[in-house]
UniProtKB/TrEMBL annotation:
Superkingdom of origin organism: Bacteria
Protein name in UniProt: AAA family ATPase
InterPro entries: AAA+_ATPase, AAA_22, ExeA_AAA_ATPase_DNA-bind, P-loop_NTPase
Matching Pfam families: AAA_22
PANTHER family: GENERAL SECRETION PATHWAY PROTEIN A-RELATED, PHOSPHORIBULOKINASE _ URIDINE KINASE FAMILY
Residue ranges of domain AAA+ ATPase in the record: 46-189
Gene3D superfamilies noted in UniProt: P-loop containing nucleotide triphosphate hydrolases (3.40.50.300)
Length: 293
């Protein structure tokens, strides 16, 4: 069934639980408000490194998009997502994000000089450079250290480059590793987005329903409680469950989603939960894949 059909059934003007990051739907929970404040603090204070982490689906990318809407005109911003590779590859990602042409076949030194010249030119023009790296846990320790080295570009007391790292909990574990102690010392602020509790999940669902033109009564209290338990407080999982539940309820011509609807779609196997390595969660192995000492 086309999900747009349930809009008419419930009186929505758009899907309230789309999985695509949308700052217009951003729910300012206490955790998201604090995370955003940390990001803003990093930019205003010209912090060399700011880090925000959270589980998959907690709304980190949506926060980035909201942040980009508020950045002043005197900043040049580069956004990198899912960057990987070895030494030199990072600089190519960075230059590409900033729309700076890299010399063909350039070695690492040439790439660095190109990047440094660009940053200095922006500074001379009264602008500063902000580099936002999403899914930064994919970079690895060597590449993170390379990022730290980039922040050494400065002019007197001014930091010319700011880096914002956003990633999954593994990123926080990486930064804590002894091999990255110099990196950790340059991080001005770290914030970790925790999953939502039940009252926050309830408020989140109500917010999205009303933003889409609903009454807020499209889900029973028991349905919301079951959604929270199944989703583990992760906003993206909440969206998946709510979206499918509205499909089920409208196909049955039901006035609202009840707990039976949630149980039915779970029993039908429509939701796949992400796998989390129990050894990593328990600390039996570190994020580098080694046995914990």
């Amino acid at each position: 069934m086309n999900t747009s059909l349930y809009n008419a059934h419930f009186g929505f003007h758009e899907r309230p639980f789309s999985l695509s990051p949308d700052p217009d739907f951003l729910f300012w929970s206490k955790a998201h408000t604090r995370a955003f404040a940390v990001l803003e603090f990093g930019l205003v204070s010209r912090a060399p490194l700011t880090v925000v982490t959270g589980e998959v689906g907690t709304g980190k990318t949506t926060l980035i998009q909201a942040l980009l809407r508020q950045v002043e005109d005197d900043a040049t911003i580069g956004l990198i997502s899912n960057a990987q590779g070895g030494r030199g590859d990072l600089l190519r990602w960075v230059l590409n994000a900033l729309d700076v042409e890299a010399p063909e076949g350039a070695d690492y030194v040439s790439l660095f000089q190109t990047f440094q010249s660009f940053v200095l030119q922006e500074y001379a023009a009264g602008r500063h450079v902000i580099l936002i790296v999403d899914e930064a846990q994919n970079l690895g320790s060597e590449t993170l250290e390379e990022l730290r080295m980039l922040t050494n570009i400065n002019s007197g007391k001014d930091d010319l480059l700011q880096i914002v790292l956003v990633g999954q909990p593994e990123l926080r574990d990486l930064i804590r590793h002894p091999s990255l102690r110099q990196f950790a010392q340059r991080v001005s602020a770290v914030y970790h987005l925790e999953p939502m509790d039940l009252p926050t999940t309830r408020a989140y669902i109500l917010h999205r329903l009303k933003h889409a033109g609903g009454s807020g009564e499209e889900f029973s209290a028991s349905a919301i409680r079951h959604i929270h338990e199944e989703a583990g407080g992760i906003p993206r999982m909440v969206n998946k469950l709510c979206d499918l539940a509205l499909v089920y309820a409208s196909s049955a011509d039901a006035p609202a989603v009840d707990e039976a609807t949630i149980r039915e779609l779970i029993d039908d196997g429509l939701i796949l939960k992400p796998f989390r390595d129990p050894l990593l969660l328990s600390g039996a192995i570190d994020p580098f894949g080694k046995a914990a000492e």
